[in-house]
Structures are given as structure tokens and as C-alpha cells.
UniProtKB/TrEMBL annotation:
SUPFAM superfamilies: P-loop containing nucleoside triphosphate hydrolases. This is OBG-type G domain-containing protein. Residues 66-291 form the OBG-type G domain. The keyword GTP-binding applies. GO terms for molecular function: GTP binding; GTPase activity. Keywords: GTP-binding, Nucleotide-binding. The keyword Repressor does not apply.
Length: 346
């Protein structure tokens, strides 16, 4: 582990020293590919005892209709927020690193059971194996939505630091997969085509990245101005694209002018967990970002059951998807709050 971490540091130092221009683009692309491979090794170590498993308290069974993870620096109020939203007890104190294990709770909202995980405070350098950051981020990868909890009275630079940690382990926040095609082939070398003008990638950079992965024959086709990081993400194939809400806590401790500045942040929700300000707004935003659909069932001869809907993803909302929840097979797209009656012949 220490050797991998040192290699990561050496590469990052070299990247910091290298001027960014067309002449160095292929070299930087090669370094980024090496970095991605090393960080993957940290996430899934192969050697015995090389980092271990998830760790005590991290083996939380996924339950309910969706999973939401709370991530943030120590003492930003994650435990208080979990307490207010779910009623689950999580020890709260005014010192750092209170939460040492992953504490699950359940929110009942609009008929859905949403599992909320209070993850231990993430620290800078977690993506490089420091502290318990690797376990924290590994668990975060299993979530449907991430809440990055920020302290309104601390620098907003914490936002970027946490994003860097999550991105280091392949979590892409509020992004869609790169719109490029990468296809391996048996012969013919590296074929690079694009339908747009490229300012980041050229054939030499593409070849340098592919060579790091020992790929000598492939077709790469771009439909937008992609970067070296985008190509690496596609080759790695293990990236998680996840909605994220930036929950700025303790807004009762800042001025109205400061709050107006924070309002310019995208994907932002201001709250005070302690005073329970805007928790309803946060829940509504979580529901929006989870992008779930409620389907009501109708027992034969009875009115539709509006109290206990079947929850499906908006991306998987055919009747077949609905029936897979009750082990059946049909086709038809469903909309939010549709009523479904299924009659089974005896």
C-alpha cells in the first residue's frame, strides 16, 4: 500500500511540474492513465492484508427503495442531520471523528423507503489510502445519491477537496458518461476519428493512453471535445455516475449576504440541521435527484392502494419492470402515480 501511495504522489508531483500545452498533452495523458490504474489498485487491493475489506461497521445491507450517502469533513453536522431525518441515534459530539462506523437510518418519504447512511468524516488524501477514506468511498459508490455536507462557516474549498476524493475513486458527480466510442479490435492499430474539433485529444495522446493499458488495436470515435480523463474513464469502465446534492449546513451562523453568495452554487441546498431549517426542501430535492416513480396497485374488487406504492426507477418503468418487483413479465411505460391493476387467474 505504501509503495502504491508513493507512486501516486510521484506521478502527481510530476504532473504539477509539467506545463500543460500541446507538446506535453500525450505525456500528461500517459501520467493520468498510470494514476487511474494505481488508484484502482487502492480501491481493490489484490495482496493479502493490503488494505483489507470494507472494515467493521461498513458491511451495511442495502435495503429499501434507494440508498443516500452523507459524505463530508468531520464535524459538519452529518450525524445531527441523520438524527433529524430518520430518528436514528448516532453519537453527536463537538469534536472531530465522532462517527467511526457507518450508521444506517431509513426515511419514509412519499411512500418510498430511503436508506440514509452517515459515513465517517472523510479527510483529504482518502483516495490515496489515508485514514479510513477508502472504505468510506467504497461504500459511497453503492449509493443512488450522494449528499456532500458542507459547513457554511468553513471555506467552500472543502467542496472541491471532497469532490477530488470522490473523483479519485471513480465517482463522477452530476455528470453523464462520456459521449465517445471505444472498441477494441484484433488488428489495425489505433484508429482515431472525431466529428468535432478537438482541443484536448489527438492521435498521439490517444495512443499514449492506450499503450499504458497495453491496448494496441482499437477504434476511438469522439462526438464532442473529450479530454484524456474522459477516454481513461471509458477504458477503465468502472466509473459511477451519480447525482449529488451539496447540503450547506449551519446557515443560521452566517449572514444573509453570505447566504446569497452560496445560492449561486449549482445542486445546492441550504439547511440548519440543528434548528431543522429547510429539511422539507432537502427531502424534496433528494426525491427529485433519486428520480423515482410511484406505482399504485389495485386489489381485485377494491380501490387502489395509495398508501403503499411500488417504487421503480424512472429509467426502468415499463410494466415488465414493475412486474419484476412482483415476479411477472409485461411491457408498457409507466408514469408517476399511475394506477395498475393486475388480475391473476386462479
Amino acid at each position: 500500500m505504501a509503495t502504491v501511495m508513493q507512486k501516486i504522489k510521484d506521478i502527481e508531483d510530476e504532473m504539477a511540474r509539467t506545463q500543460k500545452n500541446k507538446a506535453t498533452a500525450h505525456h500528461l495523458g500517459l501520467l493520468k492513465a498510470k494514476l487511474a490504474k494505481l488508484r484502482r489498485e487502492l480501491l481493490t487491493p489484490t495482496s493479502k492484508g493490503g488494505g483489507g475489506g470494507a472494515g467493521e461497521g461498513f458491511d451495511v445491507t442495502k435495503s429499501g427503495d434507494a440508498r443516500v450517502g452523507l459524505v463530508g469533513f468531520p464535524s459538519v453536522g452529518k450525524s445531527t442531520l441523520l438524527n433529524k431525518l430518520t430518528g436514528t441515534f448516532s453519537e453527536v459530539a463537538a469534536y472531530e471523528f465522532t462517527t467511526l462506523t457507518c450508521i444506517p437510518g431509513v426515511i419514509m418519504y412519499k411512500g418510498a423507503k430511503i436508506q440514509l447512511l452517515d459515513l465517517p468524516g472523510i479527510i483529504e488524501g482518502a483516495k490515496d489510502g489515508k485514514g479510513r477514506g477508502r472504505q468510506v468511498i467504497s461504500t459511497a459508490r453503492t449509493c443512488n445519491v450522494i449528499l456532500i455536507v458542507l459547513d457554511a462557516i468553513k471555506p467552500i474549498t472543502h467542496k472541491r477537496l471532497i469532490e477530488k476524493e470522490l473523483e479519485g475513486f471513480g465517482i463522477r458527480l452530476n455528470k453523464t458518461p462520456p459521449n465517445l466510442t471505444f472498441r477494441r479490435k484484433d488488428k489495425g492499430g489505433i484508429n482515431f476519428t472525431s466529428t468535432v474539433t478537438n482541443t484536448n485529444l489527438d492521435l498521439e495522446t490517444v495512443k499514449a493512453i492506450c499503450s499504458e493499458y497495453r491496448i494496441h488495436n482499437a477504434d476511438v470515435s469522439l462526438r464532442y471535445d473529450a479530454t484524456a480523463d474522459d477516454l481513461i474513464d471509458v477504458i477503465e469502465g468502472s466509473r459511477i455516475y451519480m447525482p449529488c446534492i451539496y447540503v450547506v449546513n449551519k446557515i443560521d451562523q452566517i449572514t444573509l449576504e453570505e447566504l446569497e453568495i452560496l445560492d449561486k452554487l449549482p445542486h445546492y441546498c441550504p439547511i440548519s440541521a440543528h434548528l431543522e431549517w429547510n429539511l422539507d426542501g432537502l427531502l424534496e430535492m433528494i426525491w427529485e435527484y433519486l428520480d423515482l416513480v410511484r406505482i399504485y396497485t389495485k386489489p381485485k374488487g377494491l380501490n387502489p392502494d395509495y398508501e403503499d406504492p411500488v417504487i421503480v426507477s424512472s429509467k426502468k418503468k415499463t410494466v415488465e419492470d414493475f412486474c419484476n418487483r412482483i415476479h411477472k413479465d409485461m411491457e408498457h411505460e409507466l408514469e408517476d402515480e399511475d394506477v395498475v391493476q393486475i388480475i391473476k387467474k386462479v
